[in-house]
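We were asked to recover a plausible sequence for a given structure. The inputs and outputs are reproduced exactly as logged, with field labels preserved.

PROBLEM: sequence recovery
POSITIONS: 242
GIVEN STRUCTURE:
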């Protein structure tokens, strides 16, 4: 079965799952099969409707108005997680062009799939059609083996965690993303900035952070929100009751 057929089969099959009453739907985007299935099993046992995409293109075909939370890996074949994030969080979805999707993967690493240019072009046209026909605005948490660096300051994720993660952590992440949706836009922005700040504080020395202009702008933005709205309560990952 070719690459296009496999992706199309997976996307079609995802439509058979009924959404829960509270309309919570999680999309796990992970190219390692065992990890993806493990996350799906954990979240399904906790009552969530969960779908899986095994790469960036499949993710962009499955993300629609029904997906409320995306757990997104960074390193994936064809379209990396960073590029998926950029598309999903873009304010200019209506201006997407299929030519925007570039393949970063060395072809020899994926010789077992159909990667003919016409196949990818067809998928990319379907991606644009999907994203422009839905109101796409999920919360996105990066769940990745990539240690955070200063480049995360320019990424518009809602949260960032590094593997390996345990069951309670994955469930807690989704609970935290769910809590974000009850906030005003400025409060959601504050939470995302705060998670960036904490993530970098845990991985970088103060000397590096103090010399970074973008990091300082984040601190200034957080301070401005605090002054305008007062103290903003921090949303943390929620430890689920057992």
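RECOVERED SEQUENCE:
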């Amino acid at each position: 079965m070719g690459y296009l057929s496999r992706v199309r089969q997976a996307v079609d099959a995802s439509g058979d799952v009924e959404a829960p009453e509270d309309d919570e739907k999680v999309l796990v985007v992970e190219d390692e099969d065992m990890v993806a299935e493990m996350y799906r099993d954990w979240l399904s046992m906790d009552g969530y409707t969960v779908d899986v995409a095994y790469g960036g293109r499949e993710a962009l075909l499955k993300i629609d108005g029904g997906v409320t939370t995306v757990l997104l890996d960074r390193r994936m074949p064809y379209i990396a997680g960073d590029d998926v994030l950029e598309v999903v969080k873009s304010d200019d979805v209506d201006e997407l062009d299929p030519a925007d999707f570039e393949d970063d993967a060395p072809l020899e690493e994926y010789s077992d799939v159909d990667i003919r240019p016409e196949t990818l072009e067809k998928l990319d046209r379907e991606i644009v059609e999907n994203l422009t026909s839905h109101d796409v605005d999920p919360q996105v948490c990066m769940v990745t083996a990539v240690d955070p660096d200063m480049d995360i300051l320019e990424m518009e994720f809602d949260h960032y965690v590094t593997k390996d993660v345990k069951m309670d952590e994955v469930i807690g992440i989704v609970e935290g993303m769910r809590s974000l949706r009850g906030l005003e836009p400025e409060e959601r922005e504050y939470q995302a900035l705060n998670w960036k700040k904490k993530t970098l504080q845990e991985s970088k020395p103060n000397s590096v952070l103090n010399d970074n202009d973008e990091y300082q702008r984040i601190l200034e933005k957080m301070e401005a929100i605090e002054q305008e709205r007062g103290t903003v309560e921090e949303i943390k990952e929620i430890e689920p009751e057992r």
